[in-house]
Amino acid sequence: MMRSPQESLRNGVLETSTPPHHHHHQPHHFHSTVSLLKLRRFNTLILIFRFVSFCFCLASTIFMATNSLTWADFTTLRVVVAANGIVAVYSLAEMGASIWEILKGTTVLPETIQVWFDFSHDQVFAYLLVSANVAGTTMVRTLRNDGDTCSVNSSFCVQSTISISLGYVGFLFLGFSSLLSGFRVVCFIINGSRFHL
């Protein structure tokens, strides 16, 4: 009987010390778990957009680069190849950063730098990509109207058109990534964290 009250007393002490401790930490722990899940889902969405952008920009680069050698004669088409190639490499690097963040829960660079780096580079590369593709579109349209190049080498014009179209899709998904990285910047400015809690 002496042991039982001692045990219950010990339990009583434990119980008075643990529940408040539990009550203080559980909502916070639950809250942070929900936030982590949201952040993981958000990062997975960015990863998907970056992956699609990478695939289309890479395909665009390959399509144009494997085109008959004529594309190298046009500076504008060289710019299209370069822009899509650069964005493909950038998207690949950003995919790596997203995977790292999903697995580790932290950014590769310090959070402030990472948030601003992603957003600013998304903006710059989206502008570069759309400018190159618009210039390429104008160039191909001119060649079609001109008649000679496209009638002599129709596959060149077809491949160029496909390549530029793929580049536009790459730009579209880079634009989606840019919106999400912009959202992260806004959250960071407001909350001091890359995701709203």
Automatic annotation (TrEMBL):
Entry keywords, A to Z: Cell membrane, Membrane, Transmembrane, Transmembrane helix
Signal peptide: none
Stretches the record annotates as Disordered: 1-27
Biased composition annotated in UniProt, kind: Polar residues: 1-18
Location(s), subcellular: Cell membrane
UniProt xrefs under Pfam families: CASP_dom
Domain Casparian strip membrane protein, first and last residues per copy: 42-173
Example of a GO cellular component annotation carried by this entry: plasma membrane
Spans through the membrane: 45-65, 77-103, 124-143, 163-190
InterPro entries with a match to the protein in the record: CASP_dom
Topology term for the membrane: Multi-pass membrane protein
Summary of subunit composition and partner proteins: Homodimer and heterodimers.
Protein family according to the UniProt entry: Belongs to the Casparian strip membrane proteins (CASP) family.
Record-given protein name: CASP-like protein
